[in-house]
Amino acid sequence: MKERQHLLSELWGSYPAYLADERNALSAHSVGKHLADILAIGPCYYYTIHVADYSLHHPADTILSIHGIKKYPETLQQIIDLIHPDDIDFVIAAEQATLDKINEIGLQHQLNLKTSYCCRMRVADGSYHLFHHQAVLLATDDDGRLITALHIHTDMQHIMSVNNKIVLISDIGERNNYCQINLSEQPMTTPPPKLSKREMEVLALLAQGLSSQQIGDKLFISVQTVHVHRKHLLKKTNTNNSSNLIKKCIELSLL
Hints:
21% strand; 9 helices; alpha+beta; 2 domains; 34% helix; Arc Repressor Mutant, subunit A
């Protein structure tokens, strides 16, 4: 029995092969290692969750100022309480979609996956902004069940204010998994362009604010090759600069 129940408890509990009942200590180094590869192009914060009791750990200080709260949340339900009531059903559907897809891919690969979707959350002035939720799985038990996860929430209101209701599951490892799940009632009018694995890598690093030289150094390719990939990205997305490229790719759930 979980010590601290929350709105997603029943859903998560219906996937016993996915969630572990034991706890595992998480070092701050593990968090920092993954944060370097996470998209955050606005005010953001992170925390880790122990699924054995749904407790939160390692919260970033910015969680207080962004949401206008005085104490660090200690349970997942306290985070859920910040979500717009009209978005709760979508969040539940998004979580179920990610669980189903991870099961399909194979639980043995879940540590190489990142999941993301958007929802509205209350901010310090009492209004609601659209946030980009990202989850990276950090540790599993001997049976491959999840023990700890890292959640990152980024305020996206300055980029987009309408939720496209698309769930993205992408690979942070070598298997090159990539899946979009459209949970909106409307079909996607414009299908996302097909990007190569290298173009996806360049796009992710651009979104992190890296220069062409830094991207080349990180990917062990020349600056000229980076420029070629950037030109291809602009052409495929029908954009004319990096800012519009990143905005368009977020709207298309390519990031």
